């Protein structure tokens, strides 16, 4: 029933082969979370109320679909492995839907709203098909804490590269690909469709490289189970650290998504300089690299809990400076420099979350004598979508209150000062509040570090050794 997962270390070839897959996944992810809102509201002119309704409804379905996909992955048995087939199937499906989501096919009115609604839900489903098996592979690579941390860091590095490609290149490439009816800043529906098509091809390519260069050597197979809400609730309820993780990760991720999703509005509508977003994101990428580099340095003096706290504090400090230098003082260069601080903290934060979730899988087995890798990791995708829901409610609720849609469709297409101030607040002032609350929850409730983490690790290693002897 169990294939031995001995305390082995991964090679750099395995780490890089695995990490490359994150580039493709995050090309789609970055396009969806950073530019879909702007595409739907400012390019297609859809009403804010539609997205305020669509997003929560989609999350209700995700609450069913994500853990269902986790169960399917846990039950998968193929000669090619447990995870890799789904990564490739999911990536190919998500690539098709990504292109369709950003292609309107001349539709308008009710037909366009229905079409976007269907594609929106399908994007979430197909993303889940690839995302859950991809990140679920991490605990199976190694149980060595340092090596697992390194695998997560490499994957997050490539993940950041994927998002960086989208956020840096999109403001430059979209106007170049745009033809036909354009916004006053040079964007068109055609440009978004062509760019989404290019990203879709890259998504499949990078995912294929990952699948064909990654071997599933140490997979733990449990008994096949049928999907049931009772099972899902049981897994969540019985793993207190998973519940805590979902709360603090959702809050901090929502803060970050607010900036990534609102930045295009800030640079396009408030500053009137869309290409300035590319410099902003490039500088942020520098911070992301720094965030990944400081983790091994900090780990020499601090445990995972303290490093994570430092990452959140750095993020909050950076946001405070960004709000002061951006919306308040209108000093764009200083805003960009302050972004290095926040992006450094965010990069370290995401690595920490990935490591914590892998540890939570082990903790679930330690506490409940049952391992639920894919179901547990399905919560990662679900909480990210919930974070996006918070982003959507705050962003589109704010835009609706400020009558944004009426302003961009008026004869002058001018954004008033009140709306510009509101966009600045949503982009730079609300996020640190959410991240501060996340820090408080994490500090007070997350216990999977120090002695408890050591106990879990020792238990898993001992259990695997015993299982190996039994199977021999």
TrEMBL record:
GO terms for cellular component: plasma membrane. GO terms for biological process: carbohydrate transport; sodium ion transport. The chain crosses the membrane at residues 86-106, 112-132, 153-174, 194-214, 242-267, 279-299, 306-325, 337-361, 422-442. It comes from the Bacteria. Keywords: Membrane, Symport, Transmembrane, Transmembrane helix, Transport. InterPro entries: MFS_2 (IPR039672), MFS_trans_sf (IPR036259), Na/Gal_symport (IPR001927). One of its GO terms (molecular function) is symporter activity. CDD domains: MFS_MelB_like (cd17332). PANTHER family: MAJOR FACILITATOR SUPERFAMILY DOMAIN-CONTAINING PROTEIN, MELIBIOSE PERMEASE. NCBIfam families: gph. This is Melibiose permease. It comes from Eubacterium coprostanoligenes.
